[in-house]
User: What shape does this take?
Amino acid sequence: MQGSANLNVMLKAARKAGRSLVKDFREVENLQVGTKGPGDFVSRADTAAEAILKDELMGARPNYGFLGEEGTQIEGKDPTRRWIVDPLDGTTNFLHGMPHWAISIALEHKGEIVSAVVFDPAKDEMFYAEKGAGAWMNDSQRLRVSGRTKMIETVYATGLPFGGAKYLPACLQDLARLLPVCAGVRRWGAASLDLAYVAAGRFDGYWERGLQPWDIAAGILIVREAGGFVEPIREGQDMLADGNVVAGAAGIFEPFANIIRDREA
Ligand code: 2AM
Ligand code: CA
Assistant: This one.
């Protein structure tokens, strides 16, 4: 795909932050055995990755705004354009030495995501999309959501509630309704990659509650450009602000979303 100049800025920034995180990820294994644990080290890795992304993205587009998970918030001179960045999505995996984490970068223009990158440096998989130009992986692989239509053959991703039980009853109810009618549910711990995997047709669908804008901004566009649907769980909500999403391939979206929305199919 011949990407825009903005997309090329995003890809370059993701690769640079990815190199820094891969180097730090190798250290994490050594630190696991120490008494202090790798917690502080991982926080520093996360912050360093956000600084790299901020320098690259703001260096190339000084007028844009910036919203980053690690606290960088910049009002742009151009109020219509904003980077939405998660420097390390899947921090718990990173901390535990599990190679499933990503860098997520979205570009918002007038409230709409127009370019998106989700990069998994450990597997060297770069997922990206631009509005109207499709979704892609690495150099030239076009992404398409799955074509499955039989619920019993479909596999879903979700996030189980952590550190507090706010969404636990809803989540357990979802699982009780979905597990008997599908082929499985996975909890891999990085929302941006869950969405990228829906775009790639690996997962047939994904849902989760209580997410932050930087977890999902890039993934939403990648799924849509791969031909899938992403909607707020409660219809009519602003998805980025609400943080409760249901995503899936066209062939199963309706029955799947009905289960998550607790409606009869
Ligand atoms: P993070 O690593 O950037 O914080 C999905 O469950 C999302 O919740 C992840 O993308 C993850 O983003 C966030 N999250 C925060 N704390 C988590 C935890 N303890 N376990 C799993 N996910 C967590
Ligand atoms: Ca995240």
User: Anything to note?
Assistant: The chain has two domains: 5-142, 151-260.
